[in-house]
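Render this sequence as a predicted structure.
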Amino acid sequence: MWDALKAVVKQPYWVIALLFGATLVTFPCVTVDRDHWTTHPPNTLWPMTIGVALLLLSSVGFLFTLLSKPPTNASDAGAGLDLTRVKEHDDVLSTTVSGCEIRVTTGRIEDYASGTGAAIVLPCNEFFDDLCAHDPASALGAYVKRVFEGQSTNFVSLLQDECRKKLGEGEEQQKTELERAVSFGAGRCLLLIKPLGRSIPVALVSTTTQRAGQGLAGRISYLFDGMRELVARLADARLDEVAMPVLGAGHGRIDPPLALVGLLLAIAEAARYGQGSQRLKRVTIVVFKQDASSPAEVDEVVVRRALALIGSQG
């Protein structure tokens, strides 16, 4: 009994008014004896009048609480995050983690101008085959079409040769109902220093798997595995700058904002625990944007919050 009263007293005033008002309205109309209870017209209207007044007070109090509550806006989403860690310059948002500048911009990866020797990181499937390289709707396909125009078949052949040399023999899997193929695993990375004579290094990270009856699928965990292996490959080649699209957001079917957050966390972890003295210095993520008049694949608010999140651990 006392516990119940203590719990009631802790409630907002409009809840207490609601409970007591309902009690006063009901009590004069109910008689309870040992075996049963009966209802009847009230003998006096004073308790009911007070009860109705309390019910009205409760309603007014509830409405006042709703109206006085500040609306949720974009700035509220940043509560608990230090947004001052996020810098903005020339439409590029950035933060720093363990000495590595992590930047996010918008556009197309095939349009990204790399005049600093940065390696371009592209997503592919676990088979490192032509499924993505010949698909212009994918980040890899769009890049191959632009940079290796007319040489996509040669590029795929190069991939297969380099995979066998650097990733081992792989394991044959049932890719589709009618096709088997050699898988080199998800979260693997292949680095091509001068692919087909081009000066810009290209790294491919397997972010999707494919099995018969399941189709292509991506996981956030593949991004962490892939970034760790990417940093190892870059360290061997003495490279410390890369640019990439939002890995996993295309054929991997991970929601773009979630893919971006996962990718940023994976990059931050790789930057923090890099390979000895050879660590990443700059990473640029290009969030897909069809053209200047189209919205970006990930809203700027999400980008800022995600960068503030990883920057807080820098």
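Summary. The mean pLDDT is 85. The domain at 80-311 is CATH 3.40.220.10 (Leucine Aminopeptidase, subunit E; domain 1).
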